[in-house]
Amino acid sequence: MRNFIYIGGAIVALYLLGRARLAKNVKVVFRGLSFAGGLVRPSLNLRFGIQNPTDQTAEIRSIVGTVQANGKTVADVNTFIAVKLAPNSEAIIPVKAEPSALGIASTVWQYLQSTQREKLSIKFSGTANVDGVNFPIETTAAI
Fold first, then answer.
1. What are phi and psi for residue 70, nearest 5 degrees?
2. Residue 89 pLDDT
3. DSSP characters over 57-76
4. Which residue in 2, 6, 104, 126 is deepest, having the highest Cβ count within 10 Å?
5. Is the sign of the CA dihedral 5, 8, 12, 17 positive or negative?
6. What percent of the chain has pLDDT over 90?
7. Does domain 2-142 have CATH number 3.10.20.600?
8. Please, are residues 75 and 66 in contact by the beta-carbon 8 Å criterion?
9. Is the pLDDT of residue 114 over 80?
10. Which residues of 94-130 are buried (b: 16+ CB within 10 A; e: fewer)?
11. Between 64 and 133, where is the model more confident?
12. Strands (E), the chain
């Protein structure tokens, strides 16, 4: 009987170790940004690539965070649609953000006041929940 308890404990420990390894190895990369809507109700369509370099299936349960443009917060982001992530693969997660008018206005004003037209720096800071484990995301793109 004790052997069954030890074997069961070992199986549970291996499962939990695999989940911890998955959470440490999952990578989030910024795959694109597009603008939608109009001047009255603009929106940002963000695409994130979630990479699973392990041999275990994972489930992405949520992504939440903020989008900044040139250091100014322009939108809060959240998506709670569960997506299965196959082993050794990448899933593209589309996220729609509706920016605040104040954030957009201050970014446009800063851009117009600039004497040099630099690229717009878009930064996402947030958290992803993969199999119940939260881990931070911080990714930047220049457009």
1. 50, 40
2. 92
3. -EEEEEEEEEEEETTEEEEE
4. 126
5. positive
6. 3
7. no
8. yes
9. no
10. ebebebeeebbebbeeeeeeeeeeeeeebbbebebbb
11. 64
12. 27-37, 42-52, 58-69, 72-79, 83-85, 89-97, 121-130, 133-142
pLDDT, tens digit (0-9, with 9 covering 90-100), for 29-53: 888 777 777 666 777 788 888 888 8
Q: Would you give the DSSP letter of residue 119?
A: P
**Residue 128 Cα distances to 42, 77, 113, angstroms:** 25, 11, 36
Environment class of residue 75 by beta-carbon count within 10 Å: exposed (0-12), middle (13-18) or buried (19+)?
buried
Of 92, 50, 49, 42, residue with least CA distance to 69: 42
CB-count burial class (<10 Å; 0-12, 13-18, 19+) for 63: buried
**In the chain, where the domains are located:** 2-142
Give the Å distances, CA to CA, from 58 to 16, 22, 125, 131: 13, 8, 22, 6
Distance CA 112, CA 25 (A): 41
Query: Tokens standing for 137?
Result: 């995301």
The residue that leads in pLDDT, 18 or 120, is 120
Give this prediction's pTM.
Answer: 0.69
